[in-house]
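Quick log. Single chain, no ligands specified.
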Amino acid sequence: MQEYGWAGRVMVVLRYAAQLVAINVLWMVGTIGGLVLLGAFPATRAAARLLEALRRRTPSEHLLRDFWDGYRTDFWRTNLLGVPFWVLGALAALDLQIFRVAAAAGERFASVLLAPFLIVVVVSAVALAFLVAVGLRFRDGVLATWRFVFLAPFLSLATSATILLTVGAFLVLSWQLLILVPLVGFSAPIFLGTSFAGRRLDQLFDDGLLPDPLLTPPPVEVDEVTGSEPAGAWRS
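-> predicted structure:
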């Protein structure tokens, strides 16, 4: 893709911002369409695919069609990969409820009950970012995928900290500016988390992305006379 001058770059920024908002809406529709339990992970996978295309400067020309393609592809496998996260989420919610009851009763060691909740939330958040990034790059067995994504937060501490800090900062900002939630409240955290996790995977492995025409960068035109790329050409 080529854009020339500041006006062209402004249009690119506006287009990317519009896609972030549209992907956010598609994620919500896909999640609700699958009754949340069966929709959240396929919607996240489909959204991550579109966001990865944005990151690589090959944005989708047909958002709805490309989202649906990513949503229905490996629908049941994607949901199966998400099972541990639903289980951990339920355990975290239960632990939080026990903490609230203990705190309301004035139990002296109630704060200790909050530690498991925080650990589960932190590890699950980073593991989820790696799960989505892995899904765009590899197709290993379900058990092997679970093993890797839950070990990744401990094996890549710098990346884990970066994911937590950036996504956490965005969530705090969203808490202050609630208008961000319907606009980019879901697409932005997915974009941030999977971007950092994906870069770490690219450093560790040379396999690259799975074959996907949406994520294949267009060839860069070369001037036949000078043999160089034209000015303003965007690199992926």
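The chain has a mean pLDDT of 88.
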